[in-house]
Amino acid sequence: MSKLFEILEKIKFRPGMYIGRPSVSDLFHFLVGFKTALRELEIKSTEEEMDFHREFQPWVQKKYHVSTSNSWAKIIMLHCGSEKEGLDTFYELLDKFRNRDKSLDKKEKVSVSYTYTNKHQEKEAKVNS
């Protein structure tokens, strides 16, 4: 298991011990610091950790139908009445995220890439004409 998901499991059951209180905002800040510490110690992220860091934010945005530069924690809090509820919601979302069909993510990226390639080729054709 990855370091990230090991610590998330520990926090889930004893948030006060790790982040002071059950709070999705505090969890977010803890995870930013945790990621920074691992990078400073030159500890490489696993594929699963990299997937979380790259894809969780856009996945949450898509889930809640929002486009924003706010963090996933703030997006979650827009739909929760308390930090505790936000933390519980985070763990529900994390389970869904980790069990999602990743092939759908790749299909979306391929179609975006394909669209870019066609537009790029059209521009090149106009320039070369």
Features:
mainly alpha, 78% helix, globular, 129 residues, 7 helices, single chain, 0% strand
Q: Short description, anyone?
A:
With 129 residues, the protein is an all-alpha fold.
Q: Report the mean per-residue pLDDT as an integer.
A: 85
Helix tally equals: 7
Structural class: mainly alpha
Q: Let me know the largest β-sheet.
A: none
The residue ranges in which pLDDT falls below 50 over 5 or more consecutive positions are 110-117
> Beta-strand level of the residues, as a percent range?
under 5%
* Distance separating the two termini: 55 Å
The succession of helices and strands, N to C, reads HHHHHHH
* Radius of gyration over all CA atoms, rounded: 18 Å
Helix content: over 70%
Count of distinct strands: 0
Overall geometry: globular
SSE order and pairing:
Elements: H1 3-13, H2 15-19, H3 24-40, H4 47-64, H5 72-77, H6 83-98, H7 102-128
Helix pairs in contact: 4-6
Describe it.
With 129 residues, the protein is mainly alpha-helical. Helix content is 78%, strand content 0%. The chain is built from 7 helices and no strands. The chain has helices at 3-13, 15-19, 24-40, 47-64, 72-77, 83-98, 102-128. Helix 4 (47-64) packs across helix 6. The radius of gyration is 18 Å and the shape is globular. Mean pLDDT is 85; it is low at 110-117.
